[in-house]
């Protein structure tokens, strides 16, 4: 397998390149703009799969129009060029924010916990809208061009050390991260999820939620729900520090189970 990675210099991209290289998988890093058809097409020469991570990953990184158009045009360009060059497997970065609830300035509550891929949509920002459209573009590519596309809904992803800092911040104001279920994933687990999505025996388009096996806060999950989300229905019992993102699809479709927790020391 030869894999094109867009956004290869980013947080998840650099870890993905490292994991692919360690597995002796040849990697091509897109050198230019993922919205550029000619550049993407040239980079796809002799590639068998694409990992598309390039994006403006927050609504504050540009005007609403720039964030939206950059992200959706880049994703469509990558999908269309992959199809034209005979590439039939694409893994792309979606987000826990794709339903819109977490970044919505009106502060709606999630319809339920654990968050899953069918969570009702309530979008009021351009970034979340772009991720929702990216997932629809993935479904179109599968339908129109017979591609297999896995859209991974990443939560907060950073190194273990950086996540420890985020955990400290969240502990000072736990309500702030409630709408994402206090979810996180280490960057190496994010790369492992991508590796799994590249090789899982799938066809068609799939949206897959991801999370570590616990929450960002080292507090019993039931206690967090009772205190900060008492009006949100929890559709299954939770014990210990169980996560509030349903990762059933990750486990059953990709065979992916997170290995790392920021609350457990590395061996």
From TrEMBL:
InterPro entries: Epimerase_deHydtase, NAD(P)-bd_dom_sf. Belongs to the NAD(P)-dependent epimerase/dehydratase family. This is Nucleoside-diphosphate-sugar epimerase. Keywords: NAD, Oxidoreductase. It comes from the Bacteria. GO terms for molecular function: oxidoreductase activity. Residues 3-205 form the NAD-dependent epimerase/dehydratase domain. It comes from Actinophytocola oryzae. Signal peptide: none annotated. Pfam families: Epimerase. PANTHER family: 4-EPIMERASE, PUTATIVE (AFU_ORTHOLOGUE AFUA_7G00360)-RELATED, NUCLEOSIDE-DIPHOSPHATE-SUGAR EPIMERASE. The keyword NAD applies. CDD domains: SDR_e.
